[in-house]
Each structure stands twice: as C-alpha cells, then as structure tokens.
C-alpha cells in the first residue's frame, strides 16, 4: 500500500491519476483528498492538503471513545486509515422523507451532545458525512474542533432545512430534551434577521444568520423571523414592487400568504408550515382527487381575480393546516400566460398529468377544453415558445 506515499501533493486530488485504483476502488474524490476502499472494514484517505489531514485526524483522535465515530487505525504524512462503512449517507437515507424518524432524531441528538462534551463539532455538509448502518445506527466521519462561534449545531440544522426536515427534527428535540430545545430557541430568537437594516443596495450577506435562511433565488432571499413569520428581501426594487402589489391586493384569497408588514424592499409574511406539493407527491402512487380539487380552486381563483400569469409550480405550493398556499408572485400581474404550463410539466414528471386532466374534465369540462384544445407543452423550451407566441400576438393587436 505504499502507492499513496508517492502522490504529487501539489496537484488537486480531483486530477490525480492513480493506478492503484485498479486494486483499491475509489469510493470518494474531492479537491483535497481521495478515499479508497482497501478492505471490507478499512478505507484509506489520501490528502493533498496537510492542514485538512491534521484537522480531521485531530477530530477523530479526540472522539475515539464515542460509538458513533469510526475507528482510526493509522495516520501517516499524507494519509489516514480508518473504519469503512458500506452504507448510505444520512442525506440519501432521508431522501423523499416528509418527516424525520424518531430513532434518527434520537441518534442525531446523541451525536450533538457527544460532540459538545468533547468540544468538537460537525464539519460542513454533515448529512453527507453521517452514514446509516444497521438498525438506523449513525456514524459521523468528520468531527472537527469546536470554533466556539455557535452554541447550536448550525451546519446540521442548515442541512436538515435544505431537505425540509429541520422543523421535524426540532419537534423531536423539544420532546426529548425540552431544556436543550429552549436553549436553541433562545439563540434563534436572540439572533433574528434585522430585516429593517437591509436596503436594495446592501451587499451584506449576514453569514452569522444562515440558520434563518429558508430559501434564496433570483427574486430574493427568504429568512425565518420566528415560529410564525418570515421575511423576503428583494435585491431588485422592480421585483419587490410587483410582488407587493400582488400580495397586498390579494389578501382575501385563501392561497395567498398573509402579509404583516412591508418596507422599502422587504415583505414580512406568514411562515408556511408543511411540505411543498412536489415533495408530497413524490411519496404518492396515485393523484388523489382532493389534490386536483385544491389546485383547480387555486387556478380558478387566479383567473377570477385578474391574475394574468396562470400557473402553480408544485415546488411553490405548500400544504398547510389552512389549505394550499402559493408563493412567488412577482410576475402574476405582469406576465401573460393562460395555461398552467409549469404545473403541467411538473405533473408530467411525476406521471400524474393524465390523471389530473381526467379529474379536471369531470370537475370543470369547459376549462378542460380550453387547456386541451391544443397540445400541452411538456418541455421547458416548448412552454417558453408558447409564452412568446402569446406576447407576440398581443403586441400585434
């Protein structure tokens, strides 16, 4: 196994061409390291960055007494040999889950408490560095020294938020350890997003408030303010003005989020508790008529209320205790689109479009006829072409 000691440490690990991989398969490769499986129980990690090697080795050494930490067998000048897990990562294991299993939450809490006791913390992307072995036992492969910047496991909470399971995990923590939950809650409350300080010219990223970030895109960033509210900050004044007009004039519609306050470039609105419809439908084998009824009610309300862009992308619909709620309305009054093209495409990808249209035909035959009097575009390019034709036709009138 001396091949790893001759690797050129000045090049990126992603560019290393290693003949030894013929005998020892590569299981992971990144910019600073390559991991080989050298037996059923052992893996070898070769580093091109010695600082990274020291950081990870120190963390593993300090946590060897914990059952959720892999055994560290040897550390050399540019490598380490540690326990190997032929198991899925926690991120893959939780894929498509709408609720975090209690046993997983218990084991995650054990890791968090153990790391705190050892003055360690999870590194970046913890869900990719936690493996799920038999009986849902968790193994963390990347503990590092605690930098003392945060009393709560921010990286873990951020990762769980990214797959819509943060609230589910916190509900378990509240039940399992109310005192710890209250400490975390106090931290979150004492480090709110000061959205009134944002201006449309600010470049401040609020890196210390990443735990509040719900989502970010071209139209703005959304931060959770408390258990019931979130705020959307807009980088473009035009986007802010367009969405504010839609939201404020449509508060009487059941699918529009409640607005509490607006500022020069932000909107404070209700935080939507519940999964998005795209995530929900991934777990379904057939399209329930109740889903179609709710979608149809929403789309009909749009048409009756002066919306010019008629659409409801699955990822923008949240299933809440108060029914379906739709977000992202920047272009609802300014762009013209008579058919819900993205919704059609989303349902087609989920293999539910035919069922949806059959149910619409029974519920609203007239609307079904309008939607199907010409072929439905099933690709993004086809949908964009239809929208262009609508605009071209309107300009010619």
Give the secondary structure arrangement, pairings included.
Blueprint: E1 26-29, E2 33-37, E3 42-47, H1 50-62, E4 72-75, E5 79-83, H2 90-93, H3 102-117, E6 120-122, E7 130-132, E8 138-140, E9 143-145, H4 154-162, H5 166-176, H6 178-190, E10 213-217, E11 220-224, E12 229-233, H7 237-249, E13 259-262, E14 266-270, H8 277-282, H9 289-304, E15 317-320, E16 323-326, H10 341-349, H11 353-363, H12 365-372, H13 380-396
Describe the model.
By secondary structure, the protein is α+β, with helices and mostly antiparallel strands. The protein has 4 domains: 2-83, Phosphorylase Kinase, domain 1 (2-Layer Sandwich); 90-190, Transferase(Phosphotransferase), domain 1, CATH 1.10.510; 195-270, Phosphorylase Kinase, domain 1 (2-Layer Sandwich), CATH 3.30.200; 277-396. It is built from 13 helices and 16 strands. It has helices at 50-62, 90-93, 102-117, 154-162, 166-176, 178-190, 237-249, 277-282, 289-304, 341-349, 353-363, 365-372, 380-396, and strands at residues 26-29, 33-37, 42-47, 72-75, 79-83, 120-122, 130-132, 138-140, 143-145, 213-217, 220-224, 229-233, 259-262, 266-270, 317-320, 323-326. The strands form 5 sheets. Strands 1-2-3-5-4 form a 5-stranded antiparallel beta sheet, covered by helices on one side. It has a 5-stranded antiparallel beta sheet with strand order 10-11-12-14-13. A two-stranded antiparallel sheet has the order 6-9. Helix 5 packs across helix 6 (178-190). The chain is elongated and about 75 Å long. Mean pLDDT is 85; it is low at 9-15 and 200-209.
């Amino acid at each position: 196994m001396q091949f790893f000691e001759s690797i050129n440490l000045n090049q990126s690990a992603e560019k290393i061409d290693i003949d030894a991989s013929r005998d020892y398969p590569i299981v992971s490769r990144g910019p600073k390291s390559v991991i080989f499986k050298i037996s059923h129980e052992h893996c070898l990690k070769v580093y091109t960055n010695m600082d990274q090697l020291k950081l990870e080795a120190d963390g593993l050494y300090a946590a060897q007494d914990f059952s959720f930490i892999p055994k560290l067998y040897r550390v050399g000048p540019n490598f380490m040999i540690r326990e190997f897990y032929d198991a899925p990562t926690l991120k893959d294991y939780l894929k498509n889950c709408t609720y975090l299993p209690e046993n997983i939450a218990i084991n995650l809490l054990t890791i968090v408490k153990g790391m705190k006791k050892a003055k360690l913390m999870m590194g970046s992307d913890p869900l990719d560095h936690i493996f799920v072995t038999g009986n849902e036992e968790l193994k963390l492969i990347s503990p590092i020294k605690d930098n003392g910047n945060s009393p709560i496991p921010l990286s873990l909470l951020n990762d769980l938020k990214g797959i819509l399971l943060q609230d589910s995990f916190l509900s378990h923590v509240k039940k399992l350890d109310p005192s710890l939950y209250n400490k975390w809650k106090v931290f979150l409350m004492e480090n709110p997003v000061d959205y009134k300080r944002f201006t449309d010219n600010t470049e401040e990223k609020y890196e210390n408030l990443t735990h509040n970030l719900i989502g970010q895109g071209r139209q703005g960033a959304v931060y959770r303010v408390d258990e019931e509210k979130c705020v959307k900050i807009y980088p473009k004044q035009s986007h802010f003005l367009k969405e504010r007009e839609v939201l404020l004039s449509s508060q009487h519609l059941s699918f529009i989020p409640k607005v509490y306050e607006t500022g020069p470039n932000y909107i404070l609105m209700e935080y939507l508790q519940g999964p998005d419809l795209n995530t929900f439908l991934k777990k379904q084998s057939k399209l329930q008529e109740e889903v179609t009824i709710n979608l149809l009610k929403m789309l009909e309300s749009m048409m009756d209320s002066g919306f010019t862009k008629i659409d409801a992308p699955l990822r923008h619909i949240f299933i809440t205790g108060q029914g379906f709620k739709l977000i992202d309305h920047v272009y609802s009054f300014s762009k013209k689109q008579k058919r819900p093209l993205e919704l059609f495409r989303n349902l087609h990808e989920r293999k539910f479009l035919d069922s949806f249209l059959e149910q619409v035909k029974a519920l609203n035959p007239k609307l079904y006829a309008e939607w199907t009097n010409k072929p439905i575009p099933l690709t993004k390019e086809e949908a964009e072409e239809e929208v262009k034709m609508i605009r071209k036709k309107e300009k010619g009138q």
